[in-house]
Amino acid sequence: MAACKGRKPSLPCEREVWGKKGIPAPSFGDPMASHRSARGGGKPRPRSPILLLAASVLAVALFWVFSSSQISSAPGAASATAKLGSEEDGSDGLERKYLYWGNRVDCPGKHCDSCEGLGHQESSLRCALEEAMFLNRVFVMPSRMCINPIHNKKGILRKSADGNPEERHALGVRLWAASSCAMDSLYDFLLMSKTVPVILDNSKMWHRVVSTSMKLGERGLVNVQGISRVDLKEDEPYSNVLLINRTASPLSWFMECKDRNNRSSIMLPYSFLPKMAAKNLRDAADKIKSLLGDYDAIHVRRGDKIKTRKDRFGVERTLHPHLERDTRPEFIQQRIAKWIPPGRTLFIASNERTPGFFSPLSASYKLAYASNYSHILDPVIENNYQLFMIERLILMGANTFVRTFNEDGTDLSLTDDPKKNTKSWQIPVYTMDGEES
Ligand SMILES: *[C@@H]1O[C@H](CO)[C@@H](O)[C@H](O)[C@H]1NC(C)=O
Ligand SMILES: *[C@@H]1O[C@H](CO)[C@@H](O)[C@H](O)[C@H]1NC(C)=O
Ligand SMILES: *[C@@H]1O[C@H](CO)[C@@H](O)[C@H](O)[C@H]1NC(C)=O
């Protein structure tokens, strides 16, 4: 990861991090530099007529090379392809229009060498997918997702938390140091395409869109930044172009959606991407759910969230003053008793790393963790994002589910502290005394 430090935040960094596997996405950024010899007319807007001519000739030639393999197949079956994001029925897919936001989800400025956790990146993906839906365009999905090394490390520690030593070995010794993973190891794009058509940016279809957009010139490609989705939908230079290339906020893709407080304009619920998990992840979750039978679940966020820091008088302060207390087993027990009767099977997902931390709850409940199912998870899981996606599906399938924080006002939660608090550092409360109610 440190390899990217001090580099320009654009392609060189991504090449190193992403380029190791798979076909690199076609480069638009500097076509004259590396793609000229390989791709001929790689420049979207040549400046001189001679270049333009040469570029068009090459582009047309390339177009024929690309499409000649398709000629023999039925031209009538056109639209199903792009709709499902598959490339098997031989259509050229060019009757659809495309939306591209770049080749990685969130590359926040100079912090391009790292990235946020899965939930954060999903907020960004949802924002981009909603725009594609709104514009009735196929979304061009980055083919890889960055994995935050901190989240991955927590995963390893979490796995050993309640497992016996053999499980620790089986689940802990893994290639979890990976800095990115294939997007299709996380999501099922055929399933997703039933709601929002999607192609990957390492697919043949994408290469075809790219080469065609160059051939078409201004009707082929438009680069936009900071233009509202309504304008993109209705205004002439954008509404009919084959490919819209949006440069999203350098902070985070989801910043593009932050002004949409009009709820009726939100098209995809939070649960959309969790439900789009890749088939092998959904299958693993289903197996575990059927072994659990009739179960309840809690998600206990400790680790990252219970951090304290000293103020200038040396007093410890935290953003979530009751969280450390409310996520300890004796307080959990007291809190959830009114929702989850004793004797129930309770599935616990947590980033707490102390072995046996939740064991006191076994006085009331039959406890289960992901580590109980290592025989199912081990063959499937290659990184912590996949584990998290399976755990999420298990949590969603619980009869009663208690979150750590009350996120939308109606959730059952372990604590009343708000999840979002970035300013008010308070003195943590560890005892029942001083509690409001
Ligand atoms: C999209 O636009 C950005 C900024 O203009 C550019 O750097 C990038 O190469 C473009 N990508 C595509 C696919 O056109
Ligand atoms: C919210 O969005 C809907 C649909 O886009 C629109 O009809 C409605 O007028 C908007 N409401 C406000 C308060 O902007
Ligand atoms: C899960 O494993 C723990 C030991 O790590 C054990 O106490 C518990 O009974 C197991 N739960 C199930 C449902 O097998």
Low-pLDDT parts are: 1-47, 60-88, 153-176
Count every helix, treating DSSP H or I runs of 4 or more residues as helices. Answer: 18
The best one-word shape is globular
Q: Which cofactors or ions or other ligands sit in this model?
A: 2-acetamido-2-deoxy-beta-D-glucopyranose
The tally of strands reads 14
Cα-to-Cα separation, first versus last residue: 47 Å
- Strand arrangement within the widest β-sheet reads 5-2-1-7-6
Give the total of domains.
Answer: 2
Q: How confident is the prediction overall: mean pLDDT?
A: 74
Radius of gyration: 25 Å
Please estimate the helix content: 25-40%
Instruction: Outline the biggest β-sheet.
Output: 5 strands, parallel
Query: What is the beta-strand fraction?
Result: 5-15%
What is the SS-derived class? alpha/beta
Region (Disordered): 24-44
Organism: Colocasia esculenta
Protein name: O-fucosyltransferase family protein
Transmembrane segments: 49-66
Tell me what the structure shows.
The chain contains 18 helices and 14 strands. Mean pLDDT is 74; it is low at 1-47, 60-88 and 153-176. The longest helix is centred in the N-terminal third of the chain and has 20 residues, at 49-68. It is of the alpha/beta class. Helix 4 (49-68) packs antiparallel against helix 10 and helix 7 runs antiparallel to helix 8 (165-172). A hairpin with a 5-residue loop joins strand 9 and strand 10. It has helices at residues 11-18, 31-34, 36-39, 49-68, 78-84, 118-135, 149-161, 165-172, 189-192, 204-216, 229-234, 236-239, 272-275, 279-292, 323-326, 329-336, 374-377, 384-396, and strands at residues 98-100, 138-141, 144-146, 180-182, 198-200, 221-224, 243-246, 295-300, 309-310, 316-317, 345-350, 366-368, 401-403, 412-413. The protein folds into two domains: 2-146 and 193-272, no CATH class; 277-413, Rossmann fold. Helix content is 36%, strand content 11%. The relative contact order is 0.12. The two termini are 47 Å apart. Bound molecules: 2-acetamido-2-deoxy-beta-D-glucopyranose (3 copies).
